[in-house]
Amino acid sequence: MHHTESLCALLRDSRSISVLTGAGVSAESGVPTFRGKEGLWSKFKPEELANLQAFMANPELVWEWYEYRRRIIDQVQPNPGHYALAQWEKEAGSFHLITQNVDGLHQRAGSGKVIELHGNILHNRCLRCGNTSQSREVHFEGKVPGCSCGGMLRPDVVWFGETLPEKAIEEAFAAAETADLFLSVGTSAIVYPAASLPQVAKSSGAVLIEINVEHTALTPIADHFLQGPSGEILPVLFEKWRTVRIG
Ligand code: OAD
Q1: Domain assignment of residue 20, given as a range
Q2: Which residue has the higher pLDDT, 92 or 136?
Q3: For the whole model, what pTM was predicted?
């Protein structure tokens, strides 16, 4: 712990809160994370699934994988961590939620504005005309779904080697630069540019709080490292903020 101020004082004095979430925030809902023993990348090869070349070479395989992940997401519910962030947004003056997750669980928990850096698995995008649509309008049943223009549909997520949505990345960096309190929650903080957001926040003067079940690349620069599941820690932190905040 590098910061001398107590957590309560930090929460009380914060005027602008920004939060970055990763797969860990949805782990307690039952959505698998990417890395780690039970992570998706231990069972699947990203280079065969999460890039455009792979998709062009074998779109059925990639669609099947996304259909599998969509089915998981359809069956799970937001957890207390998602709900705490949604309520926090409603009660705080300045609050920005940035996520690397594509599962839409923040929105389902009631978060009004979510900056999605890696797209949304519930949306599709046409490779030809670029139109986006709700994924639940189409299902993968062995045949790659098509757009009304005749083009091939792909999941509207960011794959390896692709650039992030411009508006989202601009909003995310602005939120990092203006925050005086930045929370990094449930992310291994190794995929860039998302992983640079907590660093940017910190070098712009924010206090950095990390919530994770284990240490990450970010932990050495965090002012407070709160170890444990985000579904337990976020509601407690939010309640603490609620009781100490002024006004
Ligand atoms: P990772 O799978 O890399 O990391 C998940 C993090 O969550 C780890 O640091 C875990 O320790 C932590 N964790 C697990 N359960 C937790 C819990 N209950 N509470 C708190 N923390 C918990 O996922 P991300 O950091 O989100 O990108 O991965 C970043 C990006 O890499 C993803 O968006 C995805 C992937 O490749 C794309 O697909 C573009």
Answers
A1: 4-31+78-118+163-246
A2: 92
A3: 0.95
